[in-house]
Amino acid sequence: MSAPAPAKNAQADPGTSMRARVGDEIVVRGTAAGVVARDGEIVGLHHKDGSPPYDVRWAEDGRVTLYFPGPDAYVRHLVTGGGHVRAR
Fold it and tell me: Is the peptide bond before 69 cis (omega within 30 degrees of 0)?
């Protein structure tokens, strides 16, 4: 299984510094064929500017871990325009 491509309303920042807010989703793509991707909710920040590392609640088991994203990870930001939040 591989991770879905970022949704049109998700904003990934390839090639730039990763920034996130509490409530954003982090997706870690599988780096090899057959590797399952992981995703989770960012539940804590360690820097005011939203840079890594993050406290992430992983969807697969609900555990919260300190996570330093690598090049195989991206952040899906919630869309808040018009008072709507993107469905997960």
Answer: no
CA distance 62 to 14: 27
The residue assigned the tokens 């609640």 is 57
Q: What average pLDDT score do residues 48-72 get?
A: 96
What is the phi/psi pair of residue 43, to 5°? -110, -5
pLDDT digits (tens, 9 = 90+) for 20-29: 999 999 999 8
**How many residues comprise the chain?**
88
Distance of CA 61 to the CA centre of its chain: 16
How many other CB atoms are found less than 10 A from the CB of residue 69? 18
Distance CA 57, CA 22 (A): 11
Strands (E), the chain: 25-28, 38-45, 54-58, 64-67, 73-76
Is the entire prediction scored with pTM above 0.85?
no
